[in-house]
What we know:
By secondary structure, the protein is an alpha+beta fold. Among the domains are: 56-172 and 188-249, no CATH class; 428-584, Heat Shock Protein 90. Helix content is 49%, strand content 20%.
Amino acid sequence: MKKIALVFLLAVFVPSLVLAWLAMRSLRDQQLVLERQQSLLCQGAADSLAKEADDYLAEHQQEFGRQVEALLHAPGSQNLATTFDERLRKDWPLAEVGFVVAINSNLTCNLACPQPSSSPAASEFYAENSKFLCNVQSAQVYFNDAKNAGNNSLFQEAQVSKANSNFSQQYRNVIPQQQTLVTPGENNSQQWSKVAPSEAEFRQLVGNSNEGTVARFLENKLRVLLWYRSPNNSRLIFGAQLSLPQIIAALRPVAGHLDSSLQKDLAIALLDDNARPVAISPPNFQANWKHPFVSTELGEALPHWELAVYWLDPSRLTAAARTLKLTLGLLIGVLLLAIVTGGWLIVADLNRQLTLAREKTDFVSNVSHELKTPLTSIRMFSELLAEGRVTDPEKRHSYLRIITAETSRLTRLINNVLDFSRMERGEKKYQLQPCDLAAVVRETLDTYRPHLETSGFVIRASLPEAPLVVQGDRDALAQVVVNLLSNAEKYSETRKDIEVQVKIHTEPLPHADVCVLDRGSGVPGACAEKIFEQFYRAHDSLASGIQGSGLGLTLARRIARAHGGDVVYHARDGGGSCFILRLPLASAPPTINT
Ligand code: ADP
């Protein structure tokens, strides 16, 4: 058994555990994949909305160019360089201040417009930008790394300056919720702003281009400047400082342009450079704005502004992953349980087979002993009689009785063994025909009574006089009764009292009970059902000294069941056993019941 347990452990249990462990690992990966898919979906949505906002700003860049061209071709364009601020603001409400930078023949610059005295806004603009626009001072401006990489020498210069400076502190750290999902070593550039600040002069910034955008933070306030140079007059650079409230008002609808299939799960916010929402969809949504699920920057025109995506119900993300984990976990658990149960059943069956094999071996030695004992007595007494040494007729008679009893014990044993092997091979056939059960019991008891009484048993019988018809095989039924009587004899050592009763019952169906009661040792409680198993013996031959094959009750039950009935055991009040042969009645029971 120890060996089987070891094999079970090594061949079934340990591999099952390893499989379960591998399955749990792949389950965790599955969860990561699911979360990753969701973050990619949201990132896609954020990117497309950010692009929409970016396109909107690019459109304004072009519109500004058209406005400048229109003013250049309008009457009075000769003095446009000095009146540009006033005329632009009149025609284009998005402009807060209009400015013109004139490039002189010696390549120096001067700010032709606005005049600081013309308005408070112009005065502020002049103070903030004149030195930068006139190339007297460089200023911190913003570039999009990805957009400018490889094609802008100024950008490359900026990269060098970043490498030499403590640029990482200048970058705004973007911390979306999904950061927690990114495993170490993965490309997590998402966390850093793509828009990098760099020192540059306006002239250097303009280079040979015709238009562009410059974003600056002055006293923590964002200033967005557009500039345009007409192909007809490259010495004048026209520009406009955009009104931020107007830009926000124009961008606000973008937040609501989320795909309808995502609207029920996601919220969108347009965040300014301080991570404050300037537009939210749905409007009453609230969250920790600094921790979006995913976010995309709008670009260099609005540095550090983000289009941020949030879960309306953040627990849904984990809930879906948890449900998946739970379902697959349960599945793995059930499979593991099935493997272990299956393995356990195999081991149990193996164990049963081993027990059966052991019982068969015991059976062979029991039967050999059973055969030997009567044969020894028969031989001994018949030799005595044959030699004529016993002259006392009383003794001769007693010896002959012993020989007869031992012969019938042998016959019974051999009959049982033969019947059992026939049953095992499926060859046992019963001649079922109406027969009187009371008569069968009476005749069997009459045959067995002398032997029992000689052995000191008191026999009491309570049988009905009227015929009790059952559909049965007389010999087989007699064999059941003999086996029960023989057991009652074998297992009654001190109180030799046997009672045989035949009772009729009408509920649930009409049936007869043949009860064989004794006052013997009784069957130990734990073995009450096992005694009907083949070769099983509750009283071990060696320990009890009672011989047996472990087949008597097996046969009795099989015969009874072949007749549509059963043999059952009850412990008897006051000690002893009560074995009942139960058989269905073939005809209505007689009215008189004894
Ligand atoms: P056996 O040849 O051992 O008697 P059986 O199949 O007839 O085989 O009985 C199985 C076991 O049931 C016996 O070994 C015995 O332990 C128990 N048994 C059967 N009849 C009785 C009884 N009347 N009283 C006590 N134990 C019994």
